[in-house]
Amino acid sequence: MQSALPRLAFRLVLIVLLIAGNLWLALWLRDFAAEMAAQGRIELFGATVAGLLLLYALVLAIPFVPGAEIGLALLMTHGASAAPFVWGATVLGLSFAYGAGLALSGPRICAALERHGFARAAATLGRLRETDPETRIRRLEDSVPRWARAWVLRRRHLLLALLINLPGNSLIGGGGGILLAAGLSRLFRPLPLLLTLGLATAPVPLLVMIIGPGILG
Question: What average pLDDT score do residues 188-197 get?
Answer without folding.
Answer: 93
